[in-house]
Amino acid sequence: MARDYVSIALEYANAVLNGDIPACKWVRLACQRQLNDLAREGTDSFPYWWEPQLANRVCQFIELLPHVKGEWARHRKRLELSPWQIFRLTTVFGWINEEGYRRFKTAYNEMPRKQGKSSETSGVGLYLLTADGEPGAEVYSAATNREQAQITWKDAKQMVQRTPAFQARFGVAASSNSIFVESANSVFRPLSRDQGGNHDGLNVHGGLIDELHAHKTREIFDVIETGTGARKQPLLWLITTAGFNRAGICYEQRAYVTKILEGVVEDESYFGIIYTIDDDDDWTEPSSWEKANPNWGVSVNPEDIERKARKAMTMAAATNNFLTKHLNVWVNADTAWMDLQAWEKCGDPALTLDKFEGRKCWIGLDLASKIDVAALVLLFEDDDGWATFGRYYIPEEAAEEGRNQHYAGWDRQGLITLTPGCVTDFAFIEQDLREFASRFDIQDVAFDPWQATYLATRMQEEGMPMVEYRQTVANMSEPMKTLEALTLDQKLRHNGDPVLTWMMSNVVAHLDAKDNIYPRKEFPENKIDGVVALIMALGRAIRQQEPESQYVDTSFLGLL
To answer: Could you give the CA distance from residue 399 to residue 420 in angstroms, rounded to a whole number?
Structure first.
């Protein structure tokens, strides 16, 4: 007998909000969103209707499918959905709009490993293929490589082959590269970036993208999303664990979800939920492990998590892996420098340059390469701390390279300046410097002489206080340590700038024998120019009252 899935989902949401089920902020907000929506169903401001039959149907369908891996497959067990899974599935599939089509077009599901993601996603794919009432449905299991794309699809294929009743009921069959319903002209295939071919002609009803954090570009995501345009109720089902790349498509979608859940952005077509720990949780505590893992005690073995946690506590190399894979925490690259959670707490989207008109200002310039990112960072005294803002300049041709696709999004948001051609046009930087000189009391403009000599000469001739600041360990270590301390003490404010946050996440601290630190990056594409410029500006600001040292030479310009 089928269960009352809608009641189970409602009980789950209430238990989360009552504190009976440990859950992070984002899960609580997702549950509250559903309860709020139920309370305003069918109103003028919310023209959507809740259909319990549809909500129950998808869960009933999935629970008729068999396990295909592990102990439960050996005993021929059917899938059994946990309450947290039922909550997500009923919410996504239970709402319809005024035309009777599904409300949600995208569902972002972020959680640690071992939560039964693949089996659940395979079930969603088969439902969209056979039971969603869509003629000629095209469903794709998409990933960056063929092997990853086939994980979900192969599970679905095994489910079909092991269930003769399912084959008979829907007329579904499987071949070497597709699952299909010939009578409905519907098909379910794996799709990957490395398989080649032209993907522009897809007519997507269901797009299942597993491990979105592993996508270095947005190519596959865009192919699937744009392919849904001709469908009335397509579903883009995104599922992932946390990762490292904060400039990628996954973190972009995650950030969008957090804004929806917090009520900053309204998008009634987008469902999202994130299972992780809260910022102030101690990740070494067992209570945090359970909070992040919704399938705790089912597919997630508490003893296994404890063993891996103990290892992470004693081996620094294992810490980030445990945080991302088992607690779903986005972290920096290995051996990274800045505590990104502390950095993000310093963000204030309401902070604007207008507040600092006429105030003392220190500027850092990092012009390391004319063919890539140049950064200009402003630093102001701010009550008992500091405030900072960044400007970034990138040649158009560099921004068009496949590995730099995130630049296009930032350009659309006005977060970076694209200069024509294949090299950075420093005239844009000079123009901004003149603007800032007219608005603020510029104390110093710190620059490294590499690539900046002619710009510095021109600006000095216009009266700009240009100061050479060589990027040596002696010059960078003290302000870098100060920057870290200010961030941890929340005495440095920024405006939530995603470009600077991305660059901050890329910084790896090199420690020498004298405990000096120096900013580095692990890979060429991991830009840190904005952080370097900020360190330079802070270095000048905190040394302003000190005599000039041998490392900061302001006289060289007179020798040019």
So the answer is: 11
